[in-house]
Amino acid sequence: MSGLVVRAFRGRRAYYRGQSDYVRTLRDQPDLAPVRERAEALRTELAERSHRSHLGWTHITITPAAPAVPEERP
Fold it and tell me: Does residue 64 sit in helix, strand or coil?
């Protein structure tokens, strides 16, 4: 199961340090739109929300999510 992580950063310093103010992981689900499409819609929504509410998010990124690791059972 693949997924994408959408992160929003406040300022250049936080972006380069990897300190995000907002993180959401989106995974494939059969009854929803494709992950890339939902991630782009979320990016647009976050940009509009940042502008409207003066949140100051300067960088909004979409990156691949780490694969979910199943628990090891003895």
Answer: strand
H/E element holding 51?
helix 35-53
**pLDDT one digit per residue (tens) for the chain, 74 residues:** 478 999 999 999 999 999 999 999 999 888 888 999 999 999 999 999 999 998 888 999 999 988 777 767 66
pTM: 0.81
The tokens describing 38, both together, are 């939902």
Per-residue DSSP letters for 7-50? EEESSHHHHHHT--SEEEEEE--TTS--HHHHHHHHHHHHHHHH
Measured between alpha carbons, how far apart are the two ends of the chain, in Å?
A: 24
Q: Which of 64, 66, 46 is nearest to 56 (CA)?
A: 46
